[in-house]
Amino acid sequence: MARLLGFLLLVILVVLGLSFAVLNSQSVALNYYFGVRDIPLSMIVVVSLVAGAVTGILVSLGTIVRLKQQAGSLRRRLRTAQRDAEQARILE
Fold first, then answer.
1. Which of 4, 21, 29, 51 lies most in the core, judged by the most C-beta atoms within 10 Å?
2. pLDDT score, position 47
3. Contact, 38 vs 29, CB < 8 A?
4. Distance of CA 37 to the CA centre of its chain
């Protein structure tokens, strides 16, 4: 059931994306440092969205790695504490 809902959501997103591209198909002059190029507006928006997403992922990557390392360290400490607790129970 979850796969079907995911597939339906994907189809809806693709249809919305295609309709967005059709509605915004007019060309826009993109001025960059080395020249000017006419590019469809929808492509500029999509490229900007992807660039923003990639930038966000790269910026948060350091935090994600640090938190994964911290979680691993805490798991090791928990295992050690559980072992020590078991040994204390055996000694009683």
1. 21
2. 86
3. yes
4. 30
15 in any annotated domain? no
* Local structure of 6: helix, strand or coil: helix
State which residues form the domain around 55: 23-91
pLDDT of 23 reads 82
Number of folded domains that form the chain? 1
State mean pLDDT over 5-34: 85
Residue 44 lies in a domain: yes
Run of H or E including 32: strand 27-32
